[in-house]
Design brief:
Two copies of one chain form a homodimer. Chain A has four domains: 8-131, Galactose-binding domain-like (Jelly Rolls, Sandwich); 151-245, Jelly Rolls, CATH 2.60.120.260; 249-315 and 500-600, Glycosyltransferase, CATH 1.50.10.10; 333-388 and 394-498, Glycosyltransferase (Alpha/alpha barrel). Helix content of chain A is 32%, strand content 21%. Chain A has helices at residues 13-23, 198-202, 259-274, 292-303, 309-320, 333-350, 353-371, 402-421, 425-446, 467-475, 481-492, 503-515, 519-535, 574-581; strands at residues 8-9, 27-28, 31-32, 45-54, 58-64, 69-74, 77-80, 85-87, 90-99, 106-111, 121-123, 130-131, 151-155, 159-163, 166-183, 192-195, 209-211, 218-229, 237-245, 252-255, 447-448, 453-454, 589-592. In chain A, strands 13, 14, 15, 16, 17, 18 and 19 form a seven-stranded antiparallel beta sheet that branches. Chain A has a six-stranded antiparallel beta sheet with strand order 7-6-9-4-11-12, with no helix packed on it. Chain A is globular and about 80 Å long. The A-B interface holds A 17, 20-21, 23-24, 28, 30-39, 41-45, 68-71, 78-81, 97-99, 101-103, 124-126, 324, 326-327, 331 and B 17, 20-21, 23-24, 28-39, 41-45, 68-71, 78-81, 97-99, 101-103, 124-126, 324, 326-327, 331.
């Protein structure tokens, strides 16, 4: 019986390679915009090893990735890659030596008995041996591991509109697709304006995605929904969109008597599927980057849509990079902390022990970086090169920000729990002490008894209250029950406190409200906030939505008339909120199919 | 006037890219053998910045390396790569953003005023800005920085010998060359045996470099001198060798009335030129790797042959890799130490301050790794994964080895001096204290008054004496004058102490003898040891030479019948010894041409 050989590599290298491809894929008006943070490279020189006790003689062949040079050592003898190697019976130690520059070194080892899988060990000449990495997407020896096996589906436009300068082709839905222009007769020079919305495709002045196809008529992968082609007519031009995606089966169905709610689920699902590829991305037009905080939320949506632990793993590996951490994840202090918390929460949901073992040293390393940035109270403070994001909101940023300290305390708590899961009690105790001390300091410095709220800054004396730190205090169990109730009344349900304007922080706010039993308010918000986008014609959910703004102002962001991502992962949270908190309520039915085909 | 634009990159990245290519280039009997140490990758995401005060408007164009994506920011505006950018007069800050996976990111910026050179700064999103890297080999905007501009010279064989299985083509000299086979009529299937020596080319069983050319008749770069082609005749086959090399002009001439000495210089020069490319290599057949200790010696030879500071720099950058150091250079503790010493010595010779500034943090990082490996006396000891090489010799390896401690003390001394050159007195003082304390401990523990020598081990009680630690004690000024004299008598001039068997350690031994005034013994050794190789027909000098062995045993090493490198850089030291210590003696004349055409 031929065992199933998988491509194997140093764990994380595959993710670091594709993460670079992903983070370098953003294009704005013809300009490449590689992500502006420390890029983490894969290893270039590895060894993969395995010892077999062979009951009879056998043979095997080692394939390397196409850029690789190397050889195989069996016992004391060296053999080339790509040729059949015979092994006598007995105990035999096999080492596959690989060097590769342009892409990550990987091997596929084919034999009846000797065959590559996750039981092989990997070394990089710097650290102790670790289990090799592999993926269900690379199980064919004829694959090139540096080429991702995307699924493809070809779409034709569902409608063509005639405009002054040329035709506007309308596709059934937004997708990540390359375009193929096929001319009747000779190709004509033209410009192709590609939009998530009709407005941007028709705005030849300001359109974000513009392509000038060559004679081959190809436009590279973009966020495609509306396509406006100058210097042409519908008669002379046929256009196809080649949608490339990673096939992550949806394992949850949603039903509700409310058509608006059904549509919210549907649009959120479409939004989320487009933003879920090899990794969780922020958006499909922009940034196409892997952001830690965005991914943190996507992992909660994932539990109630794909229930796919692998995309979580790939995304975390891409985000954490290589230890030691010297910069914050995406340069953002809060994203570092959310990722540490996220790995622990991933473990709790999927019981994914080998992954926790793999990530624990990297979590420690990220937290050690934070610890190196503590001020005298033990609060973590950003350095010049760090970004304290939290949300697009007006904070009092004098000194350490309260919301960051909440996440810092939650991260210590996550480390305590992770250490306990790994049966490392002394480290668990150390993190517990750190957490308790920090929570004490937070309460002493940031809690404002009169306002019934945590204030942004304890330094300025301005006692400025935003929702954010208070929401985190509830979400991560850092406030006691009495304070939680006060926060609920004085902050969350207090319309004088400025409203959240991003779906990103809506997630945290609405979940906090759910946990406080305020599901009615949550349902109301889902229907008005996400429903509000639907009312404006959204068929994917947006990076930001301010109901106060006029419809024609909804495309603008960062000073760019079409800078806003109109299909943004962090806007898909109704899936999580509805599935987790509303199943069986309001006549809502959420059905989750497990991997074995059972319902739970 | 058009200013001269150079390709620029993050400093060190070019070297790390080509170092991987170099260290992955070894081929043994058709098998790739990438170097077995931590491979240091280049950065994948950088920014290059410059601020100009423009007296009038100007324009420029940014080219990126072919794998790069990115854009240019001028003031607040973004521009694509590859298109002309207009700048108004005034102060303007320019940032070139680049991401590149398969090779290192690099830019060439072309304009009358705005133009890329070493005054640009580079950032990698992890560290403070540093001056950009550049090289005189990449000064043409049409170049692809991932392709080294080798010089080439085509050689035809000078002789063809008929043998039973086919012709043996003999080239005038050994070289690094690819082969081109041109058949009269159709190509025939054949095997090509390539040797540094006639013996290995004709030994089809054991030959080290074997090639089976395809229909194109090409054999990739190898150490070529003798080429034996089966299944052919001299009439049906024409063969050419395409010698690829880095053109490093020789700036020293040697003259002596002794023809043997002239021949020693000539063969050493040829050996050394073959082993000097982008980097200093150990050998051309094997390993083709960049080894720290080998390179350390090559830098001394370089001073009296090419006097080229750039190849030193490229080699050090390749060896030190990226901070922080977590493994030793080439895994070898003594090579780490020699490289630290070497950078300081490079500075002393070339007065190369910017390079010392660049390397100082990496030297500190390597030394910090050593400090983390100290035992209770403050001696440095190898970990399991470290190799304490020193030399191919029998040492008493119980506990810390004396020779390593000598280098460790010399490294502290080098750091003290380097810190002084950089005007960092407190660090200089710290390293001086460390050095003084270590030398005291060395003298207390390793000096054997009765034997008049430092012993290998102070733990075993065996009082085993080898030449190595004693030679280092003289070379690095660690023994006082009285002890130096005793060492000279009891060790260096004592035939009961086993002789050195590698040209590598001959360098250190002979230089120590020169410094003790024993130039007659040194001349005698040069003539007998290197002359001994000549007597055996050497036209390049060897990795190892034991005069006791029979001629037919001289090819073997590491248990491989042709494992020995017959053209090895560390055998070229007569150049250094003769030029430095014998100019004007024994009727020897060494003439050094400076860069300005003057003689010194």
């Amino acid at each position: 019986m031929k065992s199933k050989a998988r491509w194997i590599w140093y764990p994380g290298d595959m993710e670091l390679y594709y993460a670079m491809k992903q983070n370098f894929s953003r294009v704005e008006r013809g300009m490449g915009w590689p992500a502006f943070w420390k890029s983490e490279g894969f290893r270039n020189r590895i060894v993969l090893r395995h010892t077999y006790d062979l009951e009879e003689e056998t043979s095997f062949t080692v394939r390397g990735n196409k850029d690789a040079v190397g050889h195989v050592v069996v016992g004391e003898r060296k053999y080339p890659l790509g040729k059949e190697i015979h092994c006598p019976k007995g105990t035999v130690r096999i080492s596959v030596h690989l060097g590769s520059i342009a892409s990550f070194p990987a091997a596929c080892i084919l034999g009846d008995v000797i065959s590559s899988d996750e039981t092989w060990m990997a070394e990089d000449y710097a650290q102790d041996p670790v289990p090799a990495g592999c993926s269900s997407f690379f199980e064919d020896a004829d694959q090139d591991p540096s080429v991702w096996p995307y699924s493809e589906k070809v779409f034709e436009p569902v409608r063509v509109e005639r405009h002054m300068g040329g035709p506007l082709f309308v596709f059934e839905q937004e997708m990540t697709a390359s375009l193929e222009l096929e001319w009747k007769g000779w190709p004509r020079p033209c410009r192709v304006y590609i939009g998530e919305t009709r407005a941007e495709a028709l705005d030849t002045e300001n359109c974000y995605c513009v392509c000038e196809p060559g004679p081959d008529g190809l436009c590279e992968k973009n966020a495609v929904h509306y396509v406006y082609v100058t210097n042409s007519t519908p008669e002379m031009l046929r256009i196809r969109a080649r949608h490339q995606y990673v096939d992550l089966p949806v394992r949850v169905t949603f039903d509700s008597p409310d058509p608006k709610l059904r549509r919210i689920w549907e649009v959120a699902e479409h939004t989320f599927r487009l933003c879920s590829g090899i990794f969780f991305l922020d958006g499909v037009k922009r940034d196409r980057w892997i952001w830690g905080g965005d991914a943190y939320q996507s992992m909660f949506v994932n539990r109630y849509l794909f229930r796919d632990a692998d995309i979580d793993r790939r995304t975390f590996r891409a985000l954490f990079g290589n230890a030691p951490a010297v910069t914050h994840i995406n340069t953002i202090l809060d994203y570092s902390l959310l990722c540490v918390i996220g790995v622990k929460e991933h473990y709790e949901f999927y019981q994914d022990l080998p992954f926790l073992v793999e990530m624990f040293p990297k979590m420690q390393s990220v937290l050690a970086l934070c610890e190196s940035q503590e001020e005298e109270h033990g609060f973590v403070a950003g350095r010049n090169q760090d970004w304290e994001f939290i949300d697009w909101a007006d904070f009092d940023r004098s000194g350490p920000l309260a919301a960051e300290q909440m996440l810092y305390a939650a991260a210590f708590q996550a480390m305590e729990q992770a250490a306990s899961f790994l049966n490392r009690p002394s480290e668990a105790g150390m993190y517990r002490d750190r957490q308790e001390k920090l929570v004490e300091e937070i309460n002493r410095n940031y809690w404002d008894e009169e306002k019934g709220a945590y204030v942004d800054s304890f330094l300025s004396g301005r006692r400025h209250v935003t929702r954010h730190a208070n929401i985190f205090a509830i979400r991560y169990g850092l406030a006691d029950p009495v304070r939680k109730e006060r926060i609920l009344k004085e902050v969350l349900l207090n319309s004088k406190i400025p409203a959240i304007t991003t779906p990103y922080f809506r997630f945290f706010e609405l979940e906090a409200l759910c946990s406080m039993g305020c599901t009615d308010q949550v349902m109301e918000t889902i229907l008005s906030y996400w429903g509000g986008m639907l009312d404006l014609g959204a068929d994917t959910f947006w990076e930001a939505y301010d109901p106060q703004k006029k419809p024609q102002e909804q495309y603008e962001m960062y000073g760019d008339p079409y800078g806003k991502s109109m299909c943004h992962a962090w806007a898909a949270s109704p899936i999580y909120l509805l599935a987790r908190y509303f199943n069986g309520k309001n006549n809502i039915t959420v059905t989750i199919q497990t991997g074995q085909g059972e319902m739970i």
